[in-house]
Amino acid sequence: MTVSVFVPRDMMAVALGADRVAAAIEAGARRRGADGRIVRNGSRGLQWLEPLVEVVTPKGRIAYGPVSPADVEGLLDAGLLEGGAHALCVGRPEDMPYLARQHRLTFERCGLTDPISIEDYRAHGGLAGLQRALGMAPAAIVEEVKKSGLRGRGGAGFPAGIKWNTVQQAHSDRKYVVCNADEGDSGTFADRLLMEGDPFCLIEGMVIAGIATGATKGLVYLRSEYPVAAAIFGQAIAIARREGLIGISVLGSPHAFDLELRIGAGAYICGEETSMLESLEGKRAIVRAKPPIPALHGFMGRPTLVNNVMTLAAVPWILAHGGQTYADYGMGRSRGTLPIQLAGNIKRGGLIEYAFGISLREVIEDFGGGTASGRPVRAVQVGGPLGAYLPAHMLDVPLDYEALAGIQAMLGHGGIVVFDDSVDMARQARFAFEFCAAESCGKCTPCRIGATRGVEAIDKIVAGMERQRNLAVVQDLCELMTDGSLCAMGGLTPLPVQSALRHFADDFAHLAVAS
Amino acid sequence: MADYEDWDAARGQDIVNGLAGLEGATLPILHALQAAFGCVPRDAVPMVADALNMSRAEVHGCITFYHDFRAEPAARHVLKLCRAEACQAAGADALHRQVLDELGVPWHGTTADGGITVEPVFCLGLCACGPSAMLDEAPMARVTAAGLRAALRARDDPRVAA
Ligand SMILES: Cc1cc2nc3c(=O)[nH]c(=O)nc-3n(C[C@H](O)[C@H](O)[C@H](O)COP(=O)(O)O)c2cc1C
Ligand code: SF4
Ligand code: FES
Fold first, then answer.
1. What residues does each domain of chain A span?
2. pTM for the whole thing?
3. What is the model's pLDDT at position A286?
4. How does the average pLDDT of chain B come out, rounded?
5. A180 lines ligand 1 (CB under 6 A)
6. What does the pLDDT look like over A339-384, one tens digit per residue?
7. Within 10 Å of residue A201's Cβ, how many Cβ atoms?
8. What is the pLDDT of residues A373-385, one digit of tens each?
9. In the predicted model, is pLDDT for residue A514 greater than 70?
10. How far is it, in rounded angstroms, from Cα B3 to Cα A29?
11. How far is Cα A273 from Cα A280, in angstroms, rounded to an integer?
12. Beta carbons of A374 and A343 less than 8 angstroms apart
């Protein structure tokens, strides 16, 4: 009997040797006369266990991880293909608290299936949302999305249903759906995991968005730092076209929708939606002033729905199970589930899809198991490079857009980066300015010049030069950038800087010799 | 790593023509040129400009705006080291000081033997197991100086290099 062995092909697994692990298992099984079939699945999101190898047994899928190429012979000797006991065995993944406790809706299939098998996709509930949408009026689809309470997962948290409605109502010869897969925030990888592990889910979400808004063309703007996602998603588009999921007639319906994958070129600012549109149009990616909003005047001047990967990938589930079922998860005005990404100095980093409202502390301690170094947590940056640094005593805050805004922080794309007590927060504040200076599009002075001046001022503070004066300069610059920047790049860089100053003032004083 | 072609105007024109029909074709064309020639050759700029009805200055502005595009080819191997926050939290700064020091280069520099160009990158999406890096097309996580040394050695070993 053929034994199926799953070895993930996600970029993290590959970075940790999955390709060599797969080859070693194949060769080792053959040498033993065993009949093993390797399936390259996506990641379960248990990133600290990658490469996580799973074997199909009568007791279910049994997992081993992290497996290095050097472990393979020993694993095969221990009866890997029968799910035999071994130090690396972690049992059935779905019994692990890390997975069992989650609310996997968007990521329900990720890691279970072969990402480029449309048969697998259908067998695990795929296309149910689209099938239902095809029987609905476009306005009813938009209504379902509104009912779900889904808010944009790219960072700003704008209600998806309202944006969809604006594009639907707009009149034009052509409309577009643009998927923002630029995922530039440090500490985030949910878009990558989904595009590598369940690409048809994003395609299905985009097709539904096209039908709902009247758009016939979709563009996915994927960052160039994700070559594995580009390869897998490119394959998935070709298969979707062959299977009639996209093309002139979506699953035999009168709706046309086609899809194109575009690769970015290493500029963080291209994640900002108007910068992305400029880039897609083939120009330097200088941020556009709003209005006009992209929903009315977007790609090529046409009405364009711009949504993050996670926003669009939530839609198939919402259509399949109903907007209200999705809205039943969450708290306050943050409805549904959040794909949380746990990273940095953390024992068990990975993807945690959970209803809004879970506290930062539960995520970091219960899921993450604390720091990888074993030292105390000192600072946590939430929401990427433009997000605030929070001290350890503030970790009881629930993950909810409004709760974080209430403590001058930001949820962003759901990335959580943990630092231990060796962190120097003056360095982190300096880096925030440095990053802004490097990645600014250059359109407004406060962002372009202010960030560079900020680096200089922090250097002086740390060197003990005119400390009070330079602290005042930093605060002034932050106010100027907050008030005078066109987009959130310049506008939110003060968030990490000022939170570092507010919560970790000592780090700016320790080297001061004169003030 | 890729073996790049020498500049050939006819080949360059083919690449440009093949993609010029896309809406907003600039980035796809620049990527394709760089994949073939290792950079966007100066002689390709007027071709792109003509095909897309842009000025040469606009094409040049595009090439310089995006970090990925080069006017000159990089070394045989490109090592990208992640400098973003999650990797910092995992000790990237100290690793980078050591690696740059061992290779004797600053950021964006190429080693004296012309073998390796080192570039900073801001996040590779491998943030749960930092520090991260990318050696040519190969992603690397939980990077150590010793691990990098071994990977670089393997690449330059003709028995291992593809
Ligand atoms: C500097 C900057 C970077 C951004 N980067 C991203 C990104 O990488 N991915 C993303 O989806 N949104 C990003 N955004 C937010 C987008 O501008 C936009 O709000 C989002 O794509 C809309 O989709 P959503 O409503 O589904 O979130 C960024 C915004 C700014 C100001
Ligand atoms: S704030 Fe910075 S990135 Fe945003 S438009 Fe202004 S200069 Fe460009
Ligand atoms: S911060 Fe280094 S890979 Fe994301």
1. 3-95, 118-327, 330-420, 425-508
2. 0.97
3. 97
4. 94
5. yes
6. 999 999 999 999 999 999 999 999 999 999 999 999 999 999 999 9
7. 30
8. 999 999 999 999 9
9. no
10. 35
11. 10
12. no
What average pLDDT does the segment B113-124 reach? 95
CA distance A22 to A446: 51
CATH of A425-508, one of 3.40.50.2300, 3.40.50.620, 1.20.1440.230, 3.40.50.150: 1.20.1440.230
Q: What average pLDDT does the segment A431-450 reach?
A: 96
| Model confidence band, residue B2 (pLDDT cutoffs 50, 70, 90) | low
* B30 domain residue, yes or no: yes
Q: Residue B88 Cα, ligand 3 centroid: separation in angstroms?
A: 8
Q: Does CATH number 3.40.30.10 belong to domain A3-95?
A: yes
* Residue burial B118-132, b: 16+ Cβ < 10 Å; e: rest: bbebbbbbbbbbbbb
Same domain membership, residue B57 and residue B87: no
Radius of gyration of chain A (CA): 24
CATH topology of domain A330-420: Ubiquitin-like (UB roll) (3.10.20)
Helix locations, A101-217, DSSP H: 118-123, 128-134, 138-148, 160-169, 190-197, 199-213
Task: Work out the pLDDT band at B162, boundaries 50, 70, 90.
Answer: very low
Q: Is residue B162 part of a domain?
A: no
Instruction: Determine, for residues A284 and B67 on separate chains, whether the beta-carbon distance falls below 8 Å.
Output: no
Q: Which two tokens stand for residue B60?
A: 């040049």
**Which one of 1.20.1560.10, 3.40.50.10050, 3.30.450.40, 3.40.50.11540 gives the CATH number of domain A118-327?**
3.40.50.11540
Which of A187, A372, A420 has the CB atom closest to B85's CB atom?
A: A187
H helices of A322-466, in order, are 323-327, 360-361, 401-405, 425-439, 445-462
Q: How far apart are CA A185 and CA A205, in angstroms?
A: 23
Q: What's the angle, vertex CA A466, arms to CA A381 and CA A442, rounded to 5?
A: 50
Of B52, B62, B90, the CB nearest to A345: B90
Domain range holding B59? Answer: 9-65
Mean pLDDT across A216-224: 98
Which chain B positions have a beta carbon within 8 Å of A372's beta carbon? 90
For residue B156, pLDDT over 80 is answered with no
Q: What is the pLDDT of residue A36?
A: 86
pLDDT at A42 over 90: yes
Q: Assess whether the C-beta atom of B134 lies below 6 angstroms from ligand 3.
A: no
